[in-house]
Amino acid sequence: MSRKSIRAYNLPNRVAAYDADMELMHPNRSKMVQIALQILPFESSAPLKGLDLGVGTGYFTERFLQAFPQSKVYAVDGAKTMIDLAKARLGGRRNRVNFLVGDFRDLAELLTGVDGLDLVYSSYALHHVTRDEKASVVRRAVSLLRPGGWFVNADISAAETPELAKRIQEIRVDGIVERAQGVDPRFSDRETTRRFLDELEANEGDQPLTLKDDLRVLQDAQLHHVAVFWLEYREAVIGGSK
Predict the structure, then answer these.
(1) What is the span of the domain harbouring residue 132?
(2) Which DSSP string corresponds to 172-206?
(3) pLDDT tens digits for range 117-131
(4) What is the CA radius of gyration of the chain?
(5) Are the C-beta atoms of residues 102 and 110 closer than 8 Å to each other?
(6) Nearest Cα to 126, choosing from 64, 59, 208, 51?
(7) CA gap 74, 52 in Å, rounded
(8) Closest CA to 169 of 234, 214, 85
(9) Is residue 167 part of a domain?
């Protein structure tokens, strides 16, 4: 995550509302994680080693450990407050997670001596870094995978044209307002919602790439079978194998 994003997610108010906000702003999160896990060619009983880039509140890692209950995870996040919430979410499963507080751009230092991973996964985290930074993180993460290991990412992307971006954002805002049902004052109408989203994305340093560029990053990291496994407007599940 960018230093700006790390600071944003260390704010208690932002962290406390994170999961509820995700339900309003990204209602496809559950479906995206489901698809990311379904694409993996591993038996559910396999003792996998995974790496979560930007564990946040532990949503993806919880689902991964449910799907592969013999597995262990290295979970990286720059915000300690997020990791505290992840520990609470995981409950008894937390003993199978090695939590690492740090910037995932520093994987070489954070994961010294770690290799042979079966899976690297991430959700709604990698869009906080620049293209060059993302390429570096992905290359380093792929280097930690064993042959046949997988990299999957569930995240947002940028539209190819300003006109398309405008229309997708209109659809996004309408959906948030509808789901909020007038209860949350941040999302009471289109104008208020748009203003909140603009401020939020500026504060958190959002820098999404186009889907085409995101796929190129994976291909340049020497992943095979790179593909889009799911796509709706600006959200996608992509990945590939080593």
Answers:
(1) 3-159+208-241
(2) HHHHHHHHHTT-SGGGSSHHHHHHHHHHHHHHHT-
(3) 999 999 999 999 999
(4) 17
(5) yes
(6) 208
(7) 6
(8) 234
(9) no
pLDDT band with cut points at 50, 70 and 90 for residue 16: low
The DSSP call for residue 19 is H
Which residue from 151, 153, 154 is spatially nearest to 242, judged by alpha carbons?
Answer: 151
Residue 231 pairs in a beta bridge with 236
- 169: its two tokens: 């954002």
- Determine the 3-state secondary structure of 147 from DSSP: strand
pTM beyond 0.85: yes
Mean pLDDT for the chain?
92
Residue 187 belongs to some domain of the structure:
no
Task: State how far the Cα of 171 lies from the Cα of 234, in Å rounded to an integer.
Answer: 10
With respect to residue 181, please indicate whether it lies within any of the assigned structural domains.
Answer: no
Task: Count structural domains, the chain.
Answer: 1
- Record the tokens describing residue 164, joined without a space: 């398309």
Distance, in Å, from the CA atom of 58 to the CA atom of 60, rounded to the nearest integer, reads: 6
Q: Is residue 175 part of a domain?
A: no
- At 81 the pLDDT is 87
What separation, in Å, do the N-terminal and C-terminal C-alpha atoms of the chain show? 24
Note the pLDDT tens digit of each residue in 60-99.
999 999 999 999 999 999 989 889 989 989 999 999 999 9
Closest to 241 in 3D by CA, of 123, 148, 116: 148
